[in-house]
Design brief:
- This protein is mainly alpha-helical.
- It has one domain (about 15-120).
- The chain has helices at about 15-65, 85-90; strands spanning about 100-105, 110-115.
- Strands 1-2 form a two-stranded antiparallel ribbon.
- β1 (about 100-105) and β2 (about 110-115) form a beta hairpin.
């Protein structure tokens, strides 16, 4: 007849459990930087795609306006000063991905200006919250 001792368990000891936890921690420490690098590469790819879309929009604008590039500012004949018309506003209708227009009042309050924020106009790798338009410049 076979005798069994119920006091002996076939579970894990504390040392075995700690060794497994240590191995998992070491693997995690090795893999987290790799995941961070992959995430940054994805952001860079998205940034490059944004720049390509903006460049294609500029090229379409140039074709429609007799080979002339959009102006940085334009003079408003009704006013003595320069208006706040930026090139990105001229190109925005040619860009179909993420052009978000937000109303904004000018400094003197007389000219309603529309600026573009976020979307295709900001680089995902730029963590700055103060920058609304990474590629087009900031106000």
């Amino acid at each position: 007849m076979k005798t069994t001792n119920r006091s002996l368990r076939s579970g894990f000891t504390l040392i075995e459990l700690l060794v497994v936890i240590a191995i998992i921690a070491i693997l995690a420490a090795i893999l987290f930087p790799v995941f961070a690098q992959a995430r940054e590469k994805a952001r860079q790819t998205s940034c490059l795609s944004n720049e390509k879309q903006i460049a294609l929009g500029v090229m379409q604008y140039v074709q429609d306006y007799d080979e002339s590039f959009p102006h940085l500012e334009r003079r408003d004949p009704a006013r003595a000063s320069w208006s706040l018309f930026a090139w990105d506003l001229a190109v925005a209708p040619y860009i179909k991905n993420g052009s978000r227009m937000v109303p904004w009042a000018s400094a003197d309050g007389t000219v309603p200006v529309i600026i573009t924020e976020g979307g295709i106009w900001s680089c995902p790798s730029n963590p700055g919250v103060e920058s609304r338009r990474t590629y087009a410049g900031n106000d």
